[in-house]
Protein backbone atom coordinates (compact mmCIF):
# COMPACT_ATOMS: atom_id res chain seq x y z
CA UNK A 1 0.00 0.00 0.00
CA UNK A 2 1.85 3.12 -1.24
CA UNK A 3 -0.34 5.88 0.18
CA UNK A 4 -2.39 6.41 3.29
CA UNK A 5 -6.03 5.52 3.05
CA UNK A 6 -7.95 8.69 3.77
CA UNK A 7 -11.13 6.97 4.83
CA UNK A 8 -11.56 5.91 8.42
CA UNK A 9 -13.30 2.63 9.04
CA UNK A 10 -15.70 2.39 11.97
CA UNK A 11 -16.70 -0.93 13.47
CA UNK A 12 -19.54 -1.58 15.89
CA UNK A 13 -21.89 -4.49 16.51
CA UNK A 14 -20.44 -6.41 13.58
CA UNK A 15 -21.22 -3.68 11.03
CA UNK A 16 -18.45 -2.06 9.01
CA UNK A 17 -18.99 1.64 8.34
CA UNK A 18 -16.82 4.22 6.58
CA UNK A 19 -16.38 7.85 7.50
CA UNK A 20 -14.35 10.53 5.75
CA UNK A 21 -13.86 12.63 8.87
CA UNK A 22 -13.49 12.26 12.61
CA UNK A 23 -16.78 14.09 13.18
CA UNK A 24 -18.76 11.00 12.25
CA UNK A 25 -18.94 9.60 15.79
CA UNK A 26 -21.07 11.45 18.31
CA UNK A 27 -19.28 12.86 21.33
CA UNK A 28 -21.25 10.56 23.64
CA UNK A 29 -20.01 7.43 21.86
CA UNK A 30 -16.77 5.72 22.83
CA UNK A 31 -14.21 5.15 20.11
CA UNK A 32 -10.55 4.37 19.48
CA UNK A 33 -8.66 5.54 16.42
CA UNK A 34 -5.92 3.38 14.93
CA UNK A 35 -3.02 4.12 12.61
CA UNK A 36 -2.03 0.64 11.45
CA UNK A 37 0.97 -0.61 9.49
CA UNK A 38 -0.61 -4.07 9.49
CA UNK A 39 -2.28 -4.41 6.10
CA UNK A 40 -4.39 -7.52 6.66
CA UNK A 41 -8.13 -7.52 6.02
CA UNK A 42 -8.51 -10.31 8.57
CA UNK A 43 -7.53 -7.88 11.36
CA UNK A 44 -10.88 -6.19 10.87
CA UNK A 45 -12.65 -9.29 12.15
CA UNK A 46 -10.83 -8.94 15.48
CA UNK A 47 -11.78 -5.27 15.60
CA UNK A 48 -15.41 -6.22 15.02
CA UNK A 49 -15.31 -8.68 17.88
CA UNK A 50 -13.81 -6.02 20.14
CA UNK A 51 -16.50 -3.55 19.13
CA UNK A 52 -19.28 -6.07 19.74
CA UNK A 53 -17.98 -6.94 23.19
CA UNK A 54 -17.20 -3.41 24.38
CA UNK A 55 -19.38 -1.04 22.38
CA UNK A 56 -16.25 0.91 21.44
CA UNK A 57 -16.06 1.92 17.80
CA UNK A 58 -12.87 1.34 15.85
CA UNK A 59 -11.69 4.05 13.46
CA UNK A 60 -8.92 2.80 11.18
CA UNK A 61 -6.27 4.19 8.85
CA UNK A 62 -3.90 1.72 7.16
CA UNK A 63 -0.62 2.57 5.45
CA UNK A 64 3.02 1.56 5.36
CA UNK A 65 4.85 1.96 8.64
CA UNK A 66 7.11 4.68 7.25
CA UNK A 67 4.11 6.67 6.00
CA UNK A 68 2.38 6.44 9.36
CA UNK A 69 5.43 7.54 11.32
CA UNK A 70 5.98 10.52 9.01
CA UNK A 71 2.30 11.43 9.26
CA UNK A 72 2.47 11.37 13.06
CA UNK A 73 5.50 13.66 12.98
CA UNK A 74 3.72 16.10 10.65
CA UNK A 75 0.51 16.12 12.66
CA UNK A 76 2.17 16.65 16.01
CA UNK A 77 -0.30 17.64 18.72
CA UNK A 78 -3.06 17.84 16.08
CA UNK A 79 -2.90 14.10 15.47
CA UNK A 80 -6.14 12.17 15.87
CA UNK A 81 -4.41 8.81 16.41
CA UNK A 82 -4.99 6.87 19.62
CA UNK A 83 -3.25 3.57 18.84
CA UNK A 84 -0.23 2.93 16.62
CA UNK A 85 0.30 -0.58 15.21
CA UNK A 86 3.60 -1.25 13.42
CA UNK A 87 5.47 -4.28 12.11
CA UNK A 88 9.15 -4.85 12.94
CA UNK A 89 11.13 -4.09 16.07
CA UNK A 90 13.03 -1.13 14.66
CA UNK A 91 9.90 0.68 13.50
CA UNK A 92 8.09 0.51 16.82
CA UNK A 93 11.29 1.22 18.75
CA UNK A 94 12.15 4.23 16.59
CA UNK A 95 8.59 5.55 16.92
CA UNK A 96 9.00 5.43 20.70
CA UNK A 97 12.43 7.10 20.58
CA UNK A 98 10.97 9.84 18.36
CA UNK A 99 8.48 10.71 21.09
CA UNK A 100 5.45 9.50 19.14
CA UNK A 101 4.28 7.08 21.84
CA UNK A 102 3.46 7.51 25.50
CA UNK A 103 4.28 5.25 28.41
CA UNK A 104 1.41 3.43 30.09
CA UNK A 105 1.11 0.59 32.57
CA UNK A 106 -1.33 -2.31 32.34
CA UNK A 107 -1.36 -5.39 34.52
CA UNK A 108 -3.11 -7.32 31.75
CA UNK A 109 -0.44 -6.44 29.20
CA UNK A 110 2.34 -7.23 31.65
CA UNK A 111 0.72 -10.62 32.23
CA UNK A 112 0.08 -11.56 28.59
CA UNK A 113 3.14 -10.10 26.83
CA UNK A 114 6.45 -11.82 27.69
CA UNK A 115 9.03 -9.35 28.98
CA UNK A 116 11.30 -9.83 25.97
CA UNK A 117 8.48 -8.68 23.69
CA UNK A 118 7.71 -5.35 25.34
CA UNK A 119 9.36 -2.00 25.83
CA UNK A 120 11.22 -1.61 29.15
CA UNK A 121 9.69 1.87 29.39
CA UNK A 122 6.18 0.52 28.67
CA UNK A 123 5.67 2.52 25.46
CA UNK A 124 4.77 -0.50 23.29
CA UNK A 125 3.82 -4.16 23.52
CA UNK A 126 4.15 -6.91 20.93
CA UNK A 127 0.98 -8.52 19.54
CA UNK A 128 2.23 -11.24 17.15
CA UNK A 129 5.54 -12.92 16.29
CA UNK A 130 7.35 -13.62 13.01
CA UNK A 131 10.30 -15.95 12.48
CA UNK A 132 13.08 -15.08 10.02
CA UNK A 133 13.79 -18.40 8.32
CA UNK A 134 15.75 -19.66 5.34
CA UNK A 135 14.16 -21.22 2.26
CA UNK A 136 16.21 -23.64 0.19
CA UNK A 137 15.87 -25.57 -3.05
CA UNK A 138 17.01 -29.16 -2.34
CA UNK A 139 17.94 -29.54 -6.01
CA UNK A 140 20.41 -26.66 -5.79
CA UNK A 141 21.93 -26.93 -2.31
CA UNK A 142 22.59 -29.48 0.42
CA UNK A 143 19.91 -28.51 2.93
CA UNK A 144 21.60 -30.58 5.66
CA UNK A 145 24.59 -28.22 5.56
CA UNK A 146 22.47 -25.12 6.22
CA UNK A 147 21.42 -24.84 9.83
CA UNK A 148 22.08 -21.22 10.74
CA UNK A 149 22.11 -17.78 9.11
CA UNK A 150 25.91 -17.85 9.37
CA UNK A 151 26.03 -20.83 7.00
CA UNK A 152 25.01 -18.55 4.14
CA UNK A 153 28.56 -17.18 4.19
CA UNK A 154 30.01 -20.60 3.30
CA UNK A 155 32.05 -20.37 0.04
CA UNK A 156 30.27 -23.53 -1.17
CA UNK A 157 27.18 -21.34 -1.70
CA UNK A 158 28.94 -19.00 -4.13
CA UNK A 159 26.32 -17.60 -6.50
CA UNK A 160 23.49 -19.44 -4.73
CA UNK A 161 22.29 -16.95 -2.10
CA UNK A 162 19.54 -14.38 -2.68
CA UNK A 163 18.15 -11.82 -0.25
CA UNK A 164 15.80 -8.87 -0.01
CA UNK A 165 17.13 -5.31 -0.22
CA UNK A 166 18.94 -3.59 2.63
CA UNK A 167 15.92 -1.31 3.17
CA UNK A 168 13.87 -4.26 4.41
CA UNK A 169 13.29 -3.70 8.16
CA UNK A 170 13.21 -7.49 8.60
CA UNK A 171 16.75 -7.84 7.26
CA UNK A 172 17.92 -4.89 9.33
CA UNK A 173 16.54 -6.55 12.45
CA UNK A 174 18.19 -9.84 11.50
CA UNK A 175 21.57 -8.13 11.30
CA UNK A 176 20.88 -6.33 14.60
CA UNK A 177 20.09 -9.74 16.04
CA UNK A 178 23.46 -11.08 14.89
CA UNK A 179 25.27 -8.09 16.39
CA UNK A 180 23.73 -8.85 19.77
CA UNK A 181 24.29 -12.60 19.49
CA UNK A 182 27.76 -12.73 17.95
CA UNK A 183 29.30 -9.30 18.21
CA UNK A 184 30.10 -6.68 15.61
CA UNK A 185 33.33 -8.24 14.32
CA UNK A 186 31.79 -11.65 13.65
CA UNK A 187 28.72 -10.05 12.07
CA UNK A 188 30.98 -8.11 9.69
CA UNK A 189 32.65 -11.34 8.57
CA UNK A 190 29.27 -13.04 8.11
CA UNK A 191 27.96 -10.19 5.99
CA UNK A 192 31.12 -10.11 3.89
CA UNK A 193 30.89 -13.83 3.15
CA UNK A 194 27.15 -13.93 2.53
CA UNK A 195 27.07 -10.90 0.24
CA UNK A 196 29.96 -12.36 -1.77
CA UNK A 197 27.76 -15.43 -2.39
CA UNK A 198 25.02 -13.35 -4.03
CA UNK A 199 24.81 -13.23 -7.81
CA UNK A 200 21.17 -12.15 -8.26
CA UNK A 201 20.03 -8.52 -7.84
CA UNK A 202 18.67 -7.75 -4.38
CA UNK A 203 14.92 -8.42 -4.28
CA UNK A 204 12.23 -5.88 -3.32
CA UNK A 205 10.24 -8.43 -1.29
CA UNK A 206 10.33 -11.80 0.43
CA UNK A 207 7.95 -13.40 -2.07
CA UNK A 208 10.37 -12.61 -4.88
CA UNK A 209 13.11 -14.42 -2.95
CA UNK A 210 10.91 -17.50 -2.49
CA UNK A 211 10.02 -17.58 -6.18
CA UNK A 212 13.68 -17.29 -7.22
CA UNK A 213 14.69 -20.15 -4.91
CA UNK A 214 11.83 -22.34 -6.12
CA UNK A 215 12.70 -21.67 -9.75
CA UNK A 216 16.34 -22.52 -9.19
CA UNK A 217 17.58 -19.01 -9.94
CA UNK A 218 19.34 -19.26 -6.59
CA UNK A 219 19.61 -21.98 -3.98
CA UNK A 220 18.79 -20.40 -0.64
CA UNK A 221 17.34 -17.15 0.70
CA UNK A 222 16.10 -15.45 3.87
CA UNK A 223 12.40 -14.66 4.40
CA UNK A 224 9.72 -14.35 7.05
CA UNK A 225 8.04 -17.71 7.57
CA UNK A 226 4.49 -16.51 6.89
CA UNK A 227 5.25 -15.50 3.30
CA UNK A 228 5.86 -19.17 2.49
CA UNK A 229 2.67 -20.13 4.32
CA UNK A 230 0.60 -17.61 2.39
CA UNK A 231 1.90 -19.04 -0.87
CA UNK A 232 1.20 -22.60 0.28
CA UNK A 233 -2.36 -21.62 1.18
CA UNK A 234 -2.93 -20.28 -2.32
CA UNK A 235 -3.37 -16.69 -1.21
CA UNK A 236 -1.26 -15.51 -4.16
CA UNK A 237 -2.70 -17.96 -6.69
CA UNK A 238 -1.98 -21.48 -7.87
CA UNK A 239 1.34 -20.69 -9.53
CA UNK A 240 2.84 -19.41 -6.30
CA UNK A 241 1.30 -22.33 -4.44
CA UNK A 242 3.15 -24.75 -6.72
CA UNK A 243 6.39 -22.81 -6.30
CA UNK A 244 6.13 -22.79 -2.50
CA UNK A 245 5.91 -26.58 -2.50
CA UNK A 246 9.34 -26.74 -4.14
CA UNK A 247 11.21 -25.05 -1.29
CA UNK A 248 12.25 -26.37 2.10
CA UNK A 249 11.90 -24.09 5.12
CA UNK A 250 14.99 -24.20 7.35
CA UNK A 251 14.57 -22.71 10.83
CA UNK A 252 17.72 -22.01 12.85
CA UNK A 253 17.79 -23.24 16.43
CA UNK A 254 17.52 -20.86 18.19
CA UNK A 255 15.79 -18.56 15.72
CA UNK A 256 15.56 -14.81 15.28
CA UNK A 257 12.03 -13.63 16.15
CA UNK A 258 10.51 -10.29 15.18
CA UNK A 259 7.10 -8.86 16.06
CA UNK A 260 4.23 -6.63 15.18
CA UNK A 261 3.47 -4.32 18.10
CA UNK A 262 1.22 -1.56 19.33
CA UNK A 263 1.47 1.55 21.47
CA UNK A 264 -0.57 4.52 22.62
CA UNK A 265 -0.07 7.67 20.53
CA UNK A 266 1.47 10.59 22.43
CA UNK A 267 -1.57 12.80 21.91
CA UNK A 268 -4.25 10.12 22.20
CA UNK A 269 -7.63 11.59 23.11
CA UNK A 270 -9.17 8.20 23.90
CA UNK A 271 -6.43 6.71 26.08
CA UNK A 272 -8.70 4.51 28.21
CA UNK A 273 -10.28 2.95 25.13
CA UNK A 274 -6.86 2.61 23.48
CA UNK A 275 -5.44 0.67 26.42
CA UNK A 276 -8.54 -1.51 26.44
CA UNK A 277 -8.02 -2.32 22.76
CA UNK A 278 -4.35 -3.21 23.19
CA UNK A 279 -5.19 -5.40 26.16
CA UNK A 280 -7.70 -7.19 23.96
CA UNK A 281 -5.29 -7.63 21.04
CA UNK A 282 -2.49 -8.92 23.29
CA UNK A 283 -4.71 -11.39 25.15
CA UNK A 284 -4.32 -15.07 24.25
CA UNK A 285 -7.52 -14.95 22.19
CA UNK A 286 -6.68 -11.62 20.58
CA UNK A 287 -3.10 -12.50 19.67
CA UNK A 288 -4.18 -15.86 18.25
CA UNK A 289 -7.00 -14.15 16.38
CA UNK A 290 -4.60 -11.73 14.72
CA UNK A 291 -1.93 -14.33 14.01
CA UNK A 292 -4.04 -17.26 12.86
CA UNK A 293 -5.28 -16.07 9.45
CA UNK A 294 -2.05 -14.16 8.69
CA UNK A 295 0.10 -17.25 9.43
CA UNK A 296 2.07 -15.36 12.08
CA UNK A 297 2.65 -16.86 15.51
CA UNK A 298 0.78 -15.62 18.60
CA UNK A 299 2.76 -14.23 21.52
CA UNK A 300 2.68 -17.59 23.26
CA UNK A 301 2.56 -20.95 21.46
CA UNK A 302 2.51 -21.59 17.74
CA UNK A 303 0.28 -21.00 14.74
CA UNK A 304 -1.69 -24.23 14.29
CA UNK A 305 -2.64 -23.92 10.63
CA UNK A 306 -1.35 -26.71 8.41
CA UNK A 307 0.63 -24.21 6.33
CA UNK A 308 2.70 -23.21 9.37
CA UNK A 309 2.65 -26.37 11.47
CA UNK A 310 4.47 -28.30 8.74
CA UNK A 311 7.57 -26.17 9.38
CA UNK A 312 7.78 -27.53 12.93
CA UNK A 313 8.22 -25.52 16.11
CA UNK A 314 10.98 -23.06 16.87
CA UNK A 315 13.01 -21.89 19.84
CA UNK A 316 13.43 -18.09 20.03
CA UNK A 317 16.89 -16.82 20.83
CA UNK A 318 17.45 -14.60 23.85
CA UNK A 319 17.63 -11.28 22.00
CA UNK A 320 14.90 -8.88 23.09
CA UNK A 321 12.88 -6.70 20.74
CA UNK A 322 14.27 -3.64 22.52
CA UNK A 323 17.82 -4.79 21.68
CA UNK A 324 16.89 -5.14 18.02
CA UNK A 325 15.69 -1.56 17.92
CA UNK A 326 18.74 -0.29 19.80
CA UNK A 327 21.10 -1.89 17.26
CA UNK A 328 19.19 -0.88 14.12
CA UNK A 329 21.47 2.00 13.12
CA UNK A 330 24.62 -0.06 13.60
CA UNK A 331 23.06 -2.87 11.55
CA UNK A 332 22.33 -0.52 8.63
CA UNK A 333 25.90 0.79 8.76
CA UNK A 334 27.36 -2.71 8.58
CA UNK A 335 25.00 -3.69 5.77
CA UNK A 336 25.99 -0.63 3.75
CA UNK A 337 29.70 -1.29 4.26
CA UNK A 338 29.19 -4.89 3.12
CA UNK A 339 27.58 -3.61 -0.13
CA UNK A 340 24.14 -4.93 0.80
CA UNK A 341 22.19 -2.65 -1.57
UniProtKB/TrEMBL annotation:
SUPFAM superfamilies, per the entry: Periplasmic binding protein-like II (SSF53850)
GO cellular component: outer membrane-bounded periplasmic space
Domain of life: Bacteria
One MF term in the entry's GO annotations: metal ion binding
Keywords for the protein's UniProt record, in alphabetical order: Ion transport, Iron, Iron transport, Metal-binding, Signal, Transport
Cross-referenced Gene3D superfamilies: Periplasmic binding protein-like II
Gene Ontology annotations of biological process type: iron ion transport
Residues where Fe cation binds: 39, 226-227
InterPro entries registered for this protein in UniProt: Ferric-bd
Family: Belongs to the bacterial solute-binding protein 1 family.
PANTHER family: IRON-UTILIZATION PERIPLASMIC PROTEIN, THIAMINE-BINDING PERIPLASMIC PROTEIN-RELATED
Protein name: ABC-type Fe3+ transport system periplasmic component
Annotated source species: Prochlorococcus marinus (strain NATL2A)
Upper lineage: Bacteria, Bacillati, Cyanobacteriota, Cyanophyceae, Synechococcales
